[in-house]
Amino acid sequence: MQGKVSMATADLTAALTAAGLARIATQLSALAQPSIHLTAVPTGDDALAAGASKLGGAPDLPVGTAWPYFKGAPLAFLAQIRLEDAHAYDTAHALPATGLLSFFYDARQQTYGDNPADKGSWQVVYSDGDTSQFQRTVAPPGMPAAGHITSCAITYAAAVTLPQQPELETPNWSWQGDEQTRYETFLATFPTKAEHDGLHSRLLGYPDTIQDDMRSECQLGANGLTGADPRAAEVAKGANVWRLLFQLDSEPGAGMRWGDAGMLYFWIERDALAAKRFDTVWMVLQSD
To answer: Would you say 186 and 21 are in contact if contact means Cβ atoms under 8 Å apart?
Structure first.
């Protein structure tokens, strides 16, 4: 499914300059990252072909693929991304061009990604091949009621994202005068006010962070550490290898609500993404 292209990267410098950020407009524009915005439309599973992109409903999995569990309980199926659909909007060619990415998470929402022991409470399954031949798989017995998510078709659109905190992306970044306030005001209507105020499910790009930057959390958790570990500071220095893979908003149409109307963020190391190693993904839940 197709959508409209949001603000082009080439337009950013002029828009930032008009917002009173002329001194750093070029630097900010250089930090822009493409993303793929998702819009969900409630649609019965029966109306969606096998292997179609969707939120919720029943997943389409290769024959013989086991439903993922965590501590004896089945994980909830969140979404499947038909990569051929997303490919036209993946201007950085970061994702595989074919196959299906399927996302699962603890239906009870008892893990948040802040503890190494949370590993396994989410899973990302990458399946290549002819997705039209995949088998629609019914949730196993014991699935909590919250794990049955309303089926929604997905519409994709290209979008440009900017970092909420550019100082985390660029060494020796400095603000002058009221530039930081001006930038925050700019982001509040970027790329348009309607898009800013809407839902923010997306592939790639920068996250819409609700709490703190998540990359250190991913780096520590993936290495089996917490912030209290004496090795944490040294290991956290490598946190910028992580990039956003998938951000899933609280989607009313699908009956999704993450914490207090928060979001799920699936992160992946850059080298792992290039190698299609989606078993290494780390997930974080943030909400107000």
So the answer is: yes
The answer, yes or no, to whether residue 200 has pLDDT greater than 90, is yes
Count CA atoms closer than 13 A to 7's CA, side-chain side.
Answer: 23
Determine the Cα–Cα distance for residues 128 and 101; give it in Å rounded to an integer.
9
Is the distance from CB of 265 to CB of 214 less than 8 angstroms? yes
DSSP-derived secondary structure for 46-76 = GGS-TT--EESS--EE-TTPPPPEETTEEPE
Q: Is the CB of residue 216 less than 8 Å from the CB of residue 239?
A: yes
Residues in CB range of 141: below 8 A, 6 or more apart: none
93 pLDDT exceeds 80? yes
Dihedral, CA of residue 151, residue 157, residue 162 and residue 165, to nearest 10: 0
Per-residue tokens: 113: 């990604």
Q: Which domains are delineated in the chain?
A: 9-286 (2.30.320.10)
